[in-house]
Amino acid sequence: MTDLPKDLHIVVLMGGWANERPVSLMSGEGVAKALEERGHRVTRIDMDRQVAARIAEVAPDVVFNALHGVPGEDGTVQGMLDLMGVPYTHSGLATSVVAIDKQLTKQALVPHGIPMPGGRIVKSDDLHERDPLPRPYVLKPVNEGSSVGVAIVTDESDYGNPIARDAKGPWQDFAELLAEPFIKGREMTTAVVDFADGPRALAVTELKPKSGFYDFDAKYTDGMTDHICPADIPESIERLCRQYALKAHQVLGCRGTSRTDFRWDEEQGEDGLFILETNTQPGMTPLSLVPEQAKHVGMEYGELVETVIAAALRDHATKGRGNGQG
After folding, report:
1. Quick check: is 143 catalytic?
2. What distance in Å separates the CA atoms of residue 226 and residue 218, rounded to the nearest whole number?
């Protein structure tokens, strides 16, 4: 249970214009309904260019940031709310700027002993001249989430060798991409939630797409991916997942909740476990992984939502208005 007052006025900020708009709308509606069921007054706001004026007009006690992607997850909205002095959920400005950028995340986490795949930023135009890495390798946008625009380039892929200019892929939409070695094996994820006594890693879920890999459609289409929670993995790997997810949450300065995604090559044992990314605003849809792990540890969806809000209010009270850290 949380000690959150029952008469809060909460803006649920959702939608926006990022690629993940449909997911954000589902997350936001789930959050809004749960808060109303728990006795709070909720104002739903679909993000647009007048969002600051709309938030100022309704004057909420706190904003639940249910946006995914840019500009809701990259520090833009966080900076706006800091300037307005309005408490908001999830990570603050500095954390959001770093965590949305996969290359900056590597630079932050790897020095702390957190294993991540190697890789480098490449110009999309150069991909049509030569491969940046030996195949198989992965290409992904630097600052998109939910596996938006991810391509796995193999000798068997139909992209061509080198990649053809007319082949459909993220090189058509982004001037630069992050190239990483492909890590074979199993896909897993661990959620971290901030409780009053500190952050805790909840569980480890294995994700088994029924076809292809765990892309945007597999994440958000019912029935396309099996979620195995808790994952059927050795105790040492479960312990490492929880340890790395918690450390990433703390090193990056995440707040409220985060979700860290892994690939594990079991042939290499503990040396085959790598973090792919840490999500500062993971989904809250009916198919989302954080609510699923919360349920596994005995936490109802509404309690999870209130716990995230309570973390925001504690942080706001501790750091004072206008502080963009964390």
Report:
1. no
2. 9
Choose the catalytic residue: 137, 220, 244, 301.
Answer: 220
Which tokens belong to 307? 């716990």
| Catalytic residue selected from 277, 292, 306, 315 | 277
The pTM of the full predicted model, rounded to 2 decimals, is: 0.90
Clarify whether 259 is annotated catalytic.
yes
Query: Would residue 20 show up in a list of annotated catalytic residues for this protein?
Result: yes
Residue 48: CB atoms within 10 A of its CB come to 11
* Spans of the chain, pLDDT less than 70: 1, 144-148, 211-223, 320-326
Q: pLDDT tens-digit profile of 263-287?
A: 999 999 999 999 999 999 999 987 7
Q: Which helix (H) or strand (E) holds 64?
A: strand 62-65
User: Is-catalytic flag, 226?
Assistant: no
Exposure pattern of 216-242 as b/e (b: 16+ CB <10 Å)? bebbbeeebbeeebebebeeebbebbb
Measured CA to CA, the distance from residue 260 to residue 318 in angstroms comes to: 26
